[in-house]
């Protein structure tokens, strides 16, 4: 293949805040090493949006930036959030806005056991679980209000796949402070995320999907979920197992080896995936993908940890594994496997002192990134 015939990918970079700015460059190292190894090229387009940009300009994420992102093949993102900015401004204005604008309805959060990473579970069971989280509905749609004399709000929400309109008028007697938040589930939303979970289960050689639910307490919302998911799973020739989310958390701690693909509404998926991160050894190893039919976005699950930003203490492996998910999504299966395999070999072959600081070692963020890059180059 000539140089002019090489596959080239334009990747948008949104390093974000705190340690996002530390770990995203290490993920880029891994991607570039894999590109050289498997004969494709990558160009980067950096976007400045995050706390620093907001504090300087008052701008969160303009629509023009989303249009520019849409020209990329994928988006690699760091953590968003900063204590100098009120909670929700950046998270809703960047993370959720991006997910909703590009209709990234899948939040894929795989959890794996890695060698050399201790689990808090007594038995040390191996974990290989994929949480498939619905990413655009439930309580995360951003429609709610708080008031001292009732809640009255006009509802207007436009998404690429549908538009929601209406009016909410609530009062309480006697008058007191109150708040209301709207949770939404649509047949479209539940059906498409369930079909994705089915496809993933087949890819993994599994015949069962577990649905995290709570219809015994929230009948209308999660009963609706159960009915549509059961219909889709039956059409796909698989088996659906319903488990209340509280019982699921208990069972995951007792014996995670029983589980494979877990399908979750938005809120439950956020919680269950963090529980699994703790079981597998820490957020510093947990990758995620926000996938839609257009631009998809890849990011580590962990937060921005501003207290250690710039100190070299951040673990870049979750960002590197997120880059592996990105390469897989782009169709670069060998490159994706090489990045993931390099992380595995690094953790397997390193002495305790050669591990990231988060895992009890002494290696800095950039040293860990360099080690993984070297392993990709030497494969």
TrEMBL record:
Keyword NAD: yes
Alphabetic keyword roster: Manganese, Metal-binding, NAD, Oxidoreductase
Alphabetized SMART domains for the sequence: Iso_dh
EC number: 1.1.1.85
Gene3D superfamilies hit by this protein: Isopropylmalate Dehydrogenase
Cofactor: Mg(2+); Mn(2+)
Domain of life: Bacteria
Keyword Heme carried by entry: no
Ranges where the Isopropylmalate dehydrogenase-like domain occurs: 10-372
GO MF terms, alphabetically ordered: 3-isopropylmalate dehydrogenase activity; magnesium ion binding; NAD binding
InterPro entries cross-referenced by the UniProt entry: ICDH/IPMDH (IPR050501), IsoCit/isopropylmalate_DH_CS (IPR019818), IsoPropMal-DH-like_dom (IPR024084)
Short name of any one Pfam family annotated for the protein: Iso_dh
PANTHER family: D-MALATE DEHYDROGENASE [DECARBOXYLATING]
Name of the protein in its database record: Isocitrate/isopropylmalate dehydrogenase
